[in-house]
Each structure stands twice: as C-alpha cells, then as structure tokens.
Design brief:
The protein is of the alpha/beta class. The chain is built from six helices and 14 strands. Strands 3-2-4-5-1-10-11-12 form an eight-stranded mixed sheet. The chain has a two-stranded antiparallel ribbon with strand order 6-7. A two-stranded antiparallel sheet has the order 8-9.
Length: 251
C-alpha cells in the first residue's frame, strides 16, 4: 500500500473484562450515532441509566438469532444505499450473541437442552461468519465479552480467558479486530475503584502491530480519546512524520 493511500480505518474493537468493569459504559464513549444489539435484558436498563444515547433492541431469547440476521441484512442495505447506517454498532455481549445462535440451532434440531458437539460447532461457525459481515460494514464495530478465569494447573496461576459456554474462544475471531482491550478494575484505598484499559498484546491476542504503537500500554476508559490518538497516528504515517514500520516519529 502506498503512503498516499493510507486512510484512518474504522474501529473494530473487542472489549473483554470481568462483570462491572465499565465495558458497556466505555463503548458508549465512541463518538457518533450508535445501534446496540442487546443480548442481556440488564444491558438495556444500564444504557439508559448511564446516559448512553443509542438505538437498541433486545435480542435475547429464542428469536435472537433470526432478529440479528434480519437487522444485519438491513444494515447491509443501508451501507449499499449510503444512508441510514449508524456510526457505531455494538454487540453486547458476545456470549449472549453466541448463545442466541446455539439456542436457535438446537431448537431447529429438536434438542432443547445440552447441545450436541456438532450444534456447538455450527453455532461457532455462524458466529464467525456474522462477525465478518459486521466488520465489512463501513462503520465502527464493538464486540463486548465477559472475562472468565481459569486455573493454569502447570504454572499454578489463574488467568483470564474469553470463553463461550465453557469452550475456548475461537482463535481466528480476535484476528478480525484491529483493537483488543482488556478492562481491569483496580481498588484504591479511600477512593472509588479505578478502571483501566490494557492495550498491550497478551496470550489471547499476540499480535504486536495494528495500533499498539499509537497507544500507551494502559489507557483511560474513553474510546473517543483512544480513537483520536489512532487517527493522529495514522495521519502521521500519511504525512511522513511517523515511520510506518517502527510506529514512531522519525528522528
């Protein structure tokens, strides 16, 4: 790609962290009009309570998968017509997004409980394909996941992992995103807890490139400021003040 062709891309952000770590609130700081796919009834309540301005609907339950697919097709038509597409689309949460597909597939197969291995694999494949369709849309896309902890029996340590109904998160899905943020809540004596976003590569997301050079290892939970940094970084590459290989300002 020629430097003259470099443009600021749309954000494709995957957020994950423990429950209550401001993931939803932080997603609301992304500038522009928003549409929220809610797979948890509590999220609808929290959007209004936190003053997040967004169009939203409840996609939890048996019909969640069909409703999601219909809305996705609507957004694709909006993109083709170049009107009516929101600036930001949020999937909250990824576990609920997956569960709605799994529920739909097992009920079609006549299995109400304890999905078979092939059902889980089919749902995972559909999830991957639908993420690809969301990411192709010319707008920002944010997927929110809860973090679950598991014990590393070899090292004797606990570590955070993104899991789907007790199974490992598909390795190829994180590669679709250009930003990957882990939310951590730190208790502070005699003060409110502090929320930080970890932006450095880790065991789940090992890539060292993408926008890591534009950000600090730990950022404040404000996507507007984070994306402003990335925009400035990309502009620097375009005007020649930043080395695109090293990700730093030229001497």
């Amino acid at each position: 790609m020629k430097v003259s062709e470099i443009v600021v891309p749309h954000a494709k952000i995957l957020e994950y962290g423990v429950s209550g770590s401001w993931k939803t609130a932080t997603a609301g700081t992304m500038p522009g009009s928003k549409y929220w796919f809610n797979y948890d009834q509590d999220n609808i309540i929290s959007l209004a309570a936190r003053g997040i301005e967004a169009d939203y609907d409840n996609y939890d339950g048996q019909e969640g998968y069909v409703k999601t697919l219909e809305k996705l097709m609507h957004f694709k038509k909006c993109a083709e017509a170049k009107e009516g597409l929101p600036d930001v689309i949020v999937v909250d949460t990824g576990q609920g997004f997956f569960r709605s597909m799994l529920t739909h597939i097992t009920r079609l197969a006549g299995r109400q409980e304890k999905p078979e291995i092939q059902d889980w694999g089919l749902a995972q494949e559909r999830m991957r394909n639908m993420f690809k369709e969301f990411i192709r849309l010319p707008c920002h896309f944010i997927a929110i996941f809860h973090e679950q902890w598991e014990k590393d029996e070899v090292q004797g340590r606990s570590r955070g992992r993104i899991l789907l109904d007790g199974r490992t998160f598909p390795d190829e899905i994180p590669a679709m995103f250009n930003c990957f943020f882990r939310f951590v809540v730190t208790p502070v004596k005699d003060k409110e807890e502090v929320v930080k976003i970890h932006t450095t590569p880790n065991s789940i997301f090992p890539a060292s490139q993408k926008f890591g050079a534009a950000l600090l290892p730990v950022e404040e939970p404000n996507l507007a400021k984070i994306w402003e940094k990335i925009t400035k970084h990309m502009q620097g590459i375009k005007d020649g003040s930043i080395d695109p290989l090293k990700g730093k300002e030229k001497n």
